[in-house]
Design brief:
With 336 residues, the chain is mainly beta. It contains three helices and 21 strands. It has one domain. It is 7% helix and 34% strand. The strands form four sheets. Strands 9, 10, 13, 14, 16, 18, 19, 20 and 21 form a nine-stranded mixed beta sheet that branches. A five-stranded mixed beta sheet has the order 2-1-7-5-6, covered by helices on one side. Strands 8, 11, 12, 15 and 17 form a five-stranded mixed beta sheet that branches. A hairpin with a 2-residue loop joins strand 19 and strand 20.
């Protein structure tokens, strides 16, 4: 695929996670997406939707409610068999997650940030990731995510042409020596698609170019590493036939710069007649600024989200859809 303008999810975050309802079939129910990594560092639940319900009767929808719900829906025997908590000096803590009791070695994140506790509230259509520590000595398990698929305003899917390609950025959330939250690129991780290793590795900036499978449908993208202990990310993209893509989004933009290393034939500048010197005057007239996105969406990114510099040259956020690539679009995740 020719190089494309890449728009970070944060560019459409100003619309708000609660307002991405302008699809052909608008969804009105409230839900979130939950990912669970088990004691072997494998995905037990990969971005599955669960209804927002006050499971514990405290009048709020919290991490605890979401974990009860995901166990009830996806764990054999439900929350009664697979999930438990106990009161501690620091508030309620998990004593069993996905059927595993390991003395309290669990982690959970809302979006890209570590939750403060089980009673942190979760907004509609956000993402909760919970995991069982596999390293219970050095606590080196790293929560990671693809910046193009996840931010603190929502979770997103790519929809693109089968066989096309897209650059992604793998980041990890953690803490520095002073226990301040930091976000760092993950280098040397291998991208997996539908559980299969691709032989594609992230560079020092956490970037890798992945190829959409030729098979159309929904595909799971994740990452593994033999250098670090990763909590596997779980994101989805949907491959479409050209006919399906055009029916939903119109013709893809095929105008872009040639790939690196290619030779582009240059058209020589037209020579001016000798008696007509080239105009080199500098004008003080102001340059008219154009909106970066439809609907007065603020396209400025927020550095506090830990999103990488994506070199955004232009942003289009129309009806909850951001055009991010020639033949690929970024949409707020639909219920699975």
């Amino acid at each position: 695929m020719k190089k494309a303008v890449l728009s970070a999810a944060a560019a459409i975050a100003a619309v708000g996670a609660l307002t991405f309802t302008s699809f052909a079939e608008a969804e009105t129910e409230d839900f979130i997406f939950v990912t669970i990594a088990d004691e072997n560092g494998k995905l037990a639940v990969a971005g599955k939707s669960v209804d927002i319900k006050d499971e514990d009767g405290d009048g709020k929808f919290t991490v605890n409610d979401a974990l009860i719900a995901v166990h009830n829906e996806y764990f054999e025997g439900g929350a009664e068999a697979g999930y438990a908590t106990v009161e501690s000096d620091y508030g309620p803590m998990i004593t069993k997650l996905w059927g595993v009791e390991n003395g309290g070695s669990y982690g959970y994140y809302i979006g890209t940030k570590a939750a403060n506790g089980l009673f942190d509230e979760i907004g509609n259509r956000l993402t909760l990731t919970a995991f069982i520590y596999t390293d219970t000595t050095a606590w080196s398990d790293k929560f990671c995510y693809f910046a193009e698929f996840l931010d603190d305003a929502g979770t997103y899917d790519y929809e693109g042409l089968a066989g096309d390609d897209q650059e992604l950025t793998l980041l990890a959330s953690g803490y520095d020596e002073n226990w301040a939250p930091v976000t760092v690129p993950v280098e040397g991780a291998q991208i997996t698609i539908d559980g299969k290793e691709t032989g594609i590795f992230t560079d020092a900036e956490g970037k890798a170019t992945v190829f959409f499978p030729e098979e159309t449908g929904v595909h799971l993208i994740s990452a593994v590493s033999d250098k670090e202990v990763l909590v596997p990310p779980a994101s989805e993209f949907v491959t479409l036939t050209r006919e399906e893509y055009v029916a939903s989004y119109g013709e893809p933009d095929d105008d872009a710069a040639p790939a690196e290393g290619s030779i582009e034939e240059e058209t020589p500048d037209e020579e001016l007649p000798a008696d007509e010197p080239e105009d080199t005057a500098i004008t003080d007239a102001p340059v008219e600024e154009t909106a970066a996105a439809a609907g007065d969406v603020d396209a400025a990114t927020d550095s506090s989200k830990g999103s990488p510099d994506t070199g955004i040259a232009d942003v289009a956020a129309i009806a909850g859809i951001a055009i991010v690539a020639a033949g690929a679009v970024l949409v707020s995740r639909k219920r699975k």
